[in-house]
Give the backbone structure.
Amino acid sequence: MKRKLLTLLLLLISLTGFTQKNSSSIVSVSQSRNSITVSFNLPEYSISDTSVLKPYGISEAFKYIDIEQLGIIDDVGYPQLPQLTVDLSIPQGASNFRVTASNTVAQTVLINRKIYPAQEDLKFNADFQIDSKYYSSNGSQYNFTSQLSEPYVVFGADGISFSIFPFTYNPQLNRIVVLKQATFTITYSTSQQRSIKSEYTSNVKESYLSNVFENYEATQVRSDLGGRYLIITAPGYENTITYFANYKRNIGYEVNAVTTNTTGTGSSSIKSYIQAQYDNTATRPDFVLLVGDHDAIPASGGSISYDINDPITDLHYSLLAGDDYFADVFLGRFSVSSSPELQNIINKTIYMELNMHRFSKKAKFLAGEGDNNWMENQLENGHDYAIDYTFNP
């Protein structure tokens, strides 16, 4: 079962950090048997004034740090400070992590205004929020230059997120210490557990993990295997989905198509079936496709009453390894309510896959906004319009 307990800091990092795989100009990573070294160089940045008069009616001006390549700490009411998060591949069973910094080059910058505090979306809260207690302190709450997440598992590979915070802010002194350069060494202990490299792998899996982790060493696999594809369909769509299953087989995938007569119709039984397929390396899928709306194949969790705090989701069907919320398979759904709808989406999916190179600047997007019923009304109206005029014809 995936763990739901997250510390405030880890939640803040995981939700608002900017993970950048192609960040070679900012970080470089090297690895030895029991350590990973991350060399960091701060890109160009500027500190500018910003006004909140128009959105909030407040005349006070603030400073903000403008740096394109980094994300931000987005803790509402606290300073919106830049951060960079990179994901690192670690040995299976690694533990006892420790971070040390060396070769640091820092600069002190004095400012004449407070750093702008992060705000909620204006749609949900139009009040300007600032933690006065923090802004009268020395900023010790965020007095760190790096943080490590808990280890996680994604697609069967162990990883850890490493975040760098180059700007340390002292509100009392109106001072920022800027970390311009540093070398971070992450050490850990390893066990004698089996390596993921001895398990099932595929081209799509290796390509994906190479893009997730800065330091992943891809395994060479036989080039004719596109990956494994598990299709779970409501019985009424079995004949129609066979055409799509054969298409996937013809382009190099190993496809296993079953109905809910085999898996069971409840979310727990469907999850158990996917889990059993995943736990067996001879059947472990890279892709899982659900065929049918949630009345035929229920969502894995959440509320169907438009509760933004408990959204209906299929995510839990993909949480198959580790103690985290990282998906371990590519999961999708053909959310259809009739065989003609399914045939339409199959035809259009195949057409898109075979002609993707021709479709630049021809995308359709669903958007919406409105009052307190924005999710139920505005987005639903746009969704229905797209169904009636794009997917049904």
In short: The chain has nine helices and 16 strands. The mean pLDDT is 86. Residues 16 and 271 are 29 Å apart (CA to CA). Residues 227-361 form a domain with the Rossmann fold fold (CATH 3.40.50.10390).
